[in-house]
Design goal:
This protein has one domain: Uracil-DNA glycosylase-like domain (Uracil-DNA Glycosylase, subunit E), CATH 3.40.470.10. The protein is an alpha/beta fold. Helices cover about 45% and strands about 10% of the residues. The chain is globular. The structure holds iron/sulfur cluster.
């Protein structure tokens, strides 16, 4: 059964409860994995994506599939450095299963997104990251309330004084990168992330 305390004093305590969260199932939504996460180990940057895919759900580790490899390629980070750098979170944390249409994964409902925001709010409170990178439009909308990914990639924002850099989703399903102007926006966005990471080091 899902446990959510009214207050958390450590990331480890939060992660213990997050790792067994079943709030969406208890609310009647289908899920096909347990929560996916990388345990906190002193990461100073927070990566905020949409939802895990099937591979991540099976391994219970974020960014394990092709999209993760693409993302690490964009940022020129080896796998171990990537996980040591970023505390990886997402709008929802469990694999939502295939879309009823059969094309791609199901987008978590608004209610599931709301249920999962509890974990994000506490993570940001306890982690106090020095950099936040959003991946994809849904993550950007949740964190900054900005509706259009295209005009935001390549820009730098702030959330309560913390730099926020938006990136597009690296999933091969998106045609966003077919536009040369968007590829330039991506290059500007990844440069911004690399510069912010260099500042943290
Ligand atoms: S998606 Fe989030 S709120 Fe829903 S069951 Fe998984 S961890 Fe809990």
């Amino acid at each position: 059964m899902t446990v959510r305390k009214s207050s958390y004093r450590s990331l480890a305590a939060l992660e213990r409860d997050l790792s067994r969260c079943r709030a969406c199932l208890e609310a009647g939504y289908p899920l096909e994995s347990l929560p996916v996460r990388v345990p906190g180990s002193g990461q100073r940057a927070y990566l905020f994506g949409q939802a895990p895919g099937v591979v991540e759900g099976e391994e219970r580790l974020p960014w394990r599939g092709r999209a993760g490899r693409t993302l690490r390629g964009w940022l020129e980070l080896e796998e171990d450095v990537f996980y040591a750098t970023f505390y990886c979170a997402s709008v929802t944390r469990c694999y939502p299963g295939r879309a009823p249409s059969g094309r791609g994964d199901r987008t978590p409902t608004s209610r599931e997104q709301e249920l999962c925001s509890f974990w994000r709010e506490w993570e940001l409170e306890l982690l106090r990251p020095r950099l936040i990178v959003t991946v994809g439009g849904l993550a950007l909308r949740w964190l900054l309330g900005l509706p259009s990914l295209t005009t935001c990639v390549g820009e730098r924002y702030e959330l309560d004084g913390t730099p926020v850099v938006p990136l597009p989703h690296p999933s091969g399903a998106s045609g966003w990168l077919n536009d040369p102007a968007n590829r330039e926006r991506l290059a500007a966005g990844t440069d911004l992330v690399k510069r912010e990471l260099a500042r943290l080091r």
